[in-house]
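fyi for ur records
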Amino acid sequence: MVDAAYKAERTVSAIFKDQQEIDGAIRRLLDRGIRQDHISVMGKNFQSKTRIAGFITKRDLILGGLRNGAIFGSLFGSFLSLLTGVGVLFIPFVGPVVAAGPLGAVLLGAASGALAGSAGAGLVSALAALGMPEEKAAVYQTRVEAGEFLVMAEVPANKSGEIQLLLESAGGEEISVHDMTLPRACDGRCDSVNELAPEVRSHLSDAAQKVFMERYNAVYDESQNGLDAEHAAWDSVREQFDEDENGVWSKQKVSV
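which gave:
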């Protein structure tokens, strides 16, 4: 049973070469009490059972119904169906990647404007901004770009050593532990735009904040899943606004 008082304080990260190893690693993390909404996976060379060429947009998350974890699981393997907040996005210097968990939500949201707006940005910039040492972030970007997979688990401090050993025994490489966790848009339901995380609010105009919060709450009330709600909220913002030169979603689109 998942501990309702679960408090993530550190992030344990590892690179996996084999997609099947990730399935085993995630199942073992869940068995050790790591919450599914605190596990992230990213990779570009998932072996799909179904042809998906054409679904990946130039830089946005898939908009056509392949957002659900269970559907992704049927395409890419069972492990993705265990995670939440699954999407496909474009990262400079890496290309289109499948990202599940809170890391995907972070890259889709606040980080995406900075990534797209800076010629020197990429996964390195995003991970470094979250608190990871730049040299380790550079290793992760290189290996993801080469077709390997990044797994991140946000864990209580007293479990970090245990989880480090677990990932190593599951085949993980380049394992690291950092005093960082990934930001969430809201802690549960958002009753006011002031409750939106600063990392989210700073990238949205006042009007976009309201759109974000309304869509977030509608999905959260139905699913009780913050990551899926966050993905849906960013979709609504992207449907109604364009970014300005500072990476703020502020330019309202004209309805045709």
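DSSP finds ten helices and eight strands in the chain. thats all i got for now
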